[in-house]
Records
---
Amino acid sequence: MTIFKSYTLYVFLSILFTLIKANSSPLILVSYFDGDEIDSTNCKVNQLIKATIIKPLECIRFQHQHEFSTLKYNENDHDDIIVETLYNDLDCKEYKEQVFHRLNYCNSSAHSFWGVENIQLSIINDIDIPINTIVHVSYKGECNGQFKNTFKRIDYQYTNYCSGSEYITTKSSCNSTAEIVHTYKGPSCSGTQYLDQVFPFVNDCTDINNNYLQFCNI
Ligand SMILES: *[C@@H]1O[C@H](CO)[C@@H](O)[C@H](O)[C@H]1NC(C)=O
Ligand SMILES: *[C@@H]1O[C@H](CO)[C@@H](O)[C@H](O)[C@H]1NC(C)=O
């Protein structure tokens, strides 16, 4: 009887442990920072523009316009490297090449899908979406808003970030239904505001492998 009990307990504990482990598997956080002058050991001296949380091994479009890739982090390697494998096709089957990203390194030579930025990759265990952001989620499975387990990537951009030139600058804000992009004649999002563009949020739940959701997190 005692043997049976401890065996049951053992099974119970190992299932529990597996569940906990599966839940806290590491996620990759890619942070994008503004600025030209950077310190390669720490991007954080510059303003954070946006970030992406990536689930390892999901086939996503990352830094490249045409290629799709998967990112992988091997906890047991202890070598602080995230391996990105690029593919020629959107199902990540046709291998192209590998790119190596050093963890927590502030990389100013990484090319971004959106233009010039400094990127830093790090490992996180929990999804923590900061406030004052516009959030974009690509997820699989049912349309129930419970994307924390089924997401492929989560992108969030800070609404207080002002970009542009000396003459024209833009900044976003949002409400429950849309992103509003404000355009100013002048630097630092000051001066005359002359244009507001409204981009209604998308909630596309038509493909169980490729659902998409946008929302305002303020
Ligand atoms: C910086 O980014 C480039 C392009 O993605 C990559 O090839 C390079 O290995 C990265 N450098 C480090 C140290 O991670
Ligand atoms: C959100 O802002 C847009 C643009 O100003 C407006 O048209 C829309 O009605 C607003 N939505 C809500 C729920 O207030």
Note: The chain has one helix and 14 strands.
---
Amino acid sequence: MKLALIPAIFNCLFYFAAQTSAVTVESVPSASSDGYIHTELDKTVSLTCTHDAASEADDELVWLRNDALVSLKEENKKGQSRVCISPVILKDRETTFTCHLRSNATNRVSVVLNVTYPPSLTEPEGITVEEEASMFLRCAIEAYPPVTSVVWTLNGTEVDLKAAQMTLTNDGLFSTLSTVKVQRSLHQATYQCITDSPMYGARTQVFTVNVTDKTLKFPLYPMIAGIVVVCLTTILAVASRWKKIVKCCK
Ligand SMILES: *[C@@H]1O[C@H](CO)[C@@H](O)[C@H](O)[C@H]1NC(C)=O
Ligand SMILES: *[C@@H]1O[C@H](CO)[C@@H](O)[C@H](O)[C@H]1NC(C)=O
Ligand SMILES: *[C@@H]1O[C@H](CO)[C@@H](O)[C@H](O)[C@H]1NC(C)=O
Ligand SMILES: *[C@@H]1O[C@H](CO)[C@@H](O)[C@H](O)[C@H]1NC(C)=O
């Protein structure tokens, strides 16, 4: 929908420019002909809106971020107005910035941020899991442009899900390799989640899984009793204190 809107807005710009009442937007980095500004996370985008009709020199400029008014300092409104998006964050994806005169919203210019980012894979993870417990290895694969492939390896060769008794799921945000019952002979290994993206190439996250012997479950009842005692003591302490506080207030 936005794609269809942008050229229309630019046509307006040229139309109104001919009538010498132009609002123009310049950006760093510069926008493509269809109004998209390519940027990446943590970068800075600066937008400068200029109004150059002498007769309306006093007219204030207004910036909208996705239709919401951007609050501007007083000295950043007349004739020229500048906004900076710094640093660019995920929320800025596909955000539209529009500039127009406060007095006349018809004559407006919009640009859209096109934020690209690789999957946010993290440092190698060491995981210790008990025999017979369940295990989830989660790899963040969300990226723009989207990753073209996700491959999991176990000790260097692609995981054979059936042989390893594991399940692989992918919800677009995470690729998760899991098993409901860990066995040392099958699962103690080094895993790699390898993503490939047309823009950022191959990225890998490493998981080292150690399987420990099954232990007895932590005794819950004594712990609950302990917590109850602590809570009761606290309540009593506050209650007796409260009497004193109330007394001195009277
Ligand atoms: C807004 O400006 C355009 C030309 O720049 C003009 O045709 C139009 O009438 C103006 N609208 C208002 C409400 O002043
Ligand atoms: C955004 O940038 C990416 C990478 O350059 C490009 O593939 C994509 O077409 C751009 N999207 C739009 C809507 O311009
Ligand atoms: C796994 O076990 C090996 C050998 O016992 C040890 O060297 C390594 O540090 C352990 N890794 C983790 C993540 O606990
Ligand atoms: C993976 O390699 C480690 C170290 O060579 C080995 O101890 C482990 O058994 C292997 N895991 C599997 C499932 O083959």
Note: The two ends are 67 Å apart (CA to CA).
